[in-house]
Design a protein that fits this description.
By secondary structure, the chain is mainly α. The protein is 72% helix and 0% strand. It has a domain of 53 residues. It contains three helices and no strands. Helix 1 runs antiparallel to helix 2. It is elongated, with a radius of gyration of 18 Å.
């Protein structure tokens, strides 16, 4: 048995509504941190919120999205090589 060197998360089911709610919540938190920084006059909090926003956008674009068949093949591969 080999030990995998990389952790993978494969989500088999995710509804469109659930994804929209999750993205809206994350976006609101990021914009909220920038807004709080603005109202408190804290440029550091605004910058941190901006960096977190950029990281969130980059992460959304780099997450691979698999079809169900691709996910099954990937899970079969992991099971045959690592379990």
């Amino acid at each position: 048995m080999k030990i995998p060197t990389k952790v993978e998360y494969i989500i088999i089911y995710e509804s469109t509504l659930g994804s929209i709610i999750q993205d809206t919540y994350t976006f609101s938190c990021l914009i909220g941190s920038i807004g709080v920084g603005y109202f408190l006059g804290s440029s550091a909090l605004q910058w941190i919120g901006g960096f977190m926003f950029i990281a969130w956008i980059a992460n959304k674009n780099f997450i691979p999205h698999l079809t169900i068949d691709q996910a099954r093949k990937r899970l079969d591969y992991i099971e045959s090589h690592y379990l």
